[in-house]
């Protein structure tokens, strides 16, 4: 039933009329507010409820008389409080739903974000849809993934915040997204799993069809208590979760930043044949630290052979550059281009990335100069980096460190947007890029070993 | 000699006249440019040189006739290029220096930043001095530490970028900062160590006197090659460095962000008696992930006992909050304050932080709402967080996640500045805060076990 039901639910957003209900009545922005749902002059298929917890059971019974099929309860204050009477109230809510045949989303959740159905619960979410489906037990963790990743080019098909999972649960949603043709990549944030064997089967089937990026909340003792207080979940221990991900081939991440990184890699990074990385960047000391971080996090930064270095040296400055990989090209990066000729930066990238010992290229840039100098000297840095990525002979990504300084970030942010518009995978730190690309490679090896296309 | 010499060098900044020298002559901003150093009408004690590498030896001989005591060579293009003739040129430079008695800083470095001497090489560095001394083999890594950490309240006594360390080297500088009365905390970024036993002795003596935060560039094979191309350093392997830090009690960090975090903890965090952390924040899902990150990185987040939770529950909302630690107080955080009465947030913090099972408090906040809503609803969030930290009965810190969105960051940045001005240790992520506080605790245990005050 899941698929039909959830497809139906998402259909409600399209063109149905919207009714507001509040005991005080009146109007909101010119729309009539009904004092009671009984007063609404037509059936009400889908109800979004913020009534207090003690009024929830009554609402279900009232809705049954209005032909309601689904209630999404934002309402919190049930079992997750740890108070026995409120846990009992939650069970009464479930009983009322079962009795009336109404399905519940939540309680204690933010509900649905589905751009194509015009469902959303946050005005900043994009209206444009994309290939990522996301199920999140936390509503806040929907905003904390969608908002930052939208600026890195990630768009969503269907997003469900499902809270206490009293009725519709993580298995229903995972099974649904696994089948959903609009969803090519699945992301999930899960605190509790109610039915372990069913969840394992759902995850196995999902990973056989599409990449699944999975974050488990509550993998430590403190985190598990937090999860219990948050959504009333019985969270498991980390090793169990890690094994489950390993066995099913889900990509296990520890934070929402890592999740966004994994989505960017899956969505925008062409698949490298291996982990041998050409590092191109600005700054000697920065190149050293970045290379250490890459090699500690699964990527190797091999030496370019002497003949390749010699070819680059012919047109590059020795002083202040490192040419053997990492290639610190900071002294030549902003050399003025001659009209009609290729820039030094481009020639260098073409030569170095063509080397057979290189599988991928990462170009990086950070901004600490005074804002005026950045705007003047680096006006074209976006074009330069995009050109380098496009002329690279191997799959490529960029690292652009955000600045905490608003004046600098107001330069960096449009730069990132420019690169994202050119479909460049953009990461915010060396560790993020290395982890995500390494995870992408590991995911590909897993697929190959299981014969998944 | 080191101390006298470097004190002398730093003295040159104060009140000596500045002469510009360039073969083209003329004027820069109204200051006469001499065509040759021989033309300068007085002795020249301290020379900052950007002549090409091939002109460096000649410059030393010329300077000897002008009574020069120190030359800081920005000039790069010596041994670090890996080209034998240029390595030979570097040795000739050293020979000329020894012969003339002139001391060299560099080559291939950015030199000195010392606010009290009015020496600087970057216009954005603060003019105000502070207790952190920093030696960095990389000039870029001076900017990459000073610029971000200045916005978190860190100020510097004396900073040396020393490049290829041809003459003045890491041991000289470390010994100097260990003795320097203006330096209370030492930070160092080192790529190569020329004299292992001397470096170990210098580090032992430094750590016995003040905290030393140490970052080694080139701890992987790729990183070591990068270091060799950057400053001609022979970098060692990671395990050696880790052992050295462990044995001497230096705080070993892997990135400059971690270094800034360690400096913030050392400078602004009152010392907690243990690692049992009260987590106060906004958002349920965020609290769960943050708690997992804390417990994975050395801090524990213990349950508050039932009687403490009951006292908090008396005036707090159950719905949408978690009260047992982590305390997700997002539903009550912005409750309007009654004039003359304590806010709910403050009462909660006072009660929870007073519990004997709690050693420290961390309060966190991130901003994903639309900028207009943030400005309106969270106008006083800075005051609220500062008040919470000040009313906490235990050492406390704040985590404020920067936003990549310039409109939001232009709200977040002044908020951070407001908290920094109130001497609150501010971190940018859960992992950063947990690592830094855990390192602070480990450092204290080390000191106690060695009987260091």
Main β-sheet description of chain A? 6 strands, mixed
Main interface pair?
A: A-B, 89 and 89 residues
Uncertain runs of chain A are none
Instruction: Let me know the number of strands of chain A.
Output: 17
The computed structural class of chain A is alpha/beta
Query: How much is the radius of gyration of chain A in Å?
Result: 26 Å
> Helicity level of chain A, as a percent range?
40-55%
Q: What's the N-to-C terminus distance of chain A?
A: 28 Å
Q: Kindly state the mean pLDDT of chain A as a whole number?
A: 92
| Morphology of chain A | elongated
Strand content of chain A: 5-15%
User: Going across the major beta sheet of chain A, what is the strand order?
Assistant: 7-9-8-10-11-12
Note the total helix count of chain A: 16
- Oligomeric state: homodimer
Characterization of this structure:
The structure is a homodimer of 453-residue chains. Chain A is of the alpha/beta class. Helix content of chain A is 43%, strand content 15%. The first copy, chain A, contains 16 helices and 17 strands. Chain A has helices at 2-11, 56-65, 84-100, 140-150, 170-179, 196-209, 221-231, 238-248, 256-268, 284-296, 306-313, 344-354, 371-377, 381-391, 406-421, 430-449, and strands at 20-21, 27-28, 31-34, 46-49, 70-73, 103-105, 111-113, 132-136, 156-161, 185-190, 212-216, 251-253, 277-281, 327-328, 360-365, 396-400, 426-427. In chain A, the strands form 4 sheets. The first copy, chain A, has a 6-stranded mixed β-sheet with strand order 7-9-8-10-11-12, with helices on both faces. The longest helix of chain A has 20 residues, at 430-449. The model of chain A has no long low-confidence stretch (mean pLDDT 92). At the A-B interface, helix 4, helix 7, helix 10 and helix 15 of A face helix 4, helix 7, helix 10 and helix 15 of B.
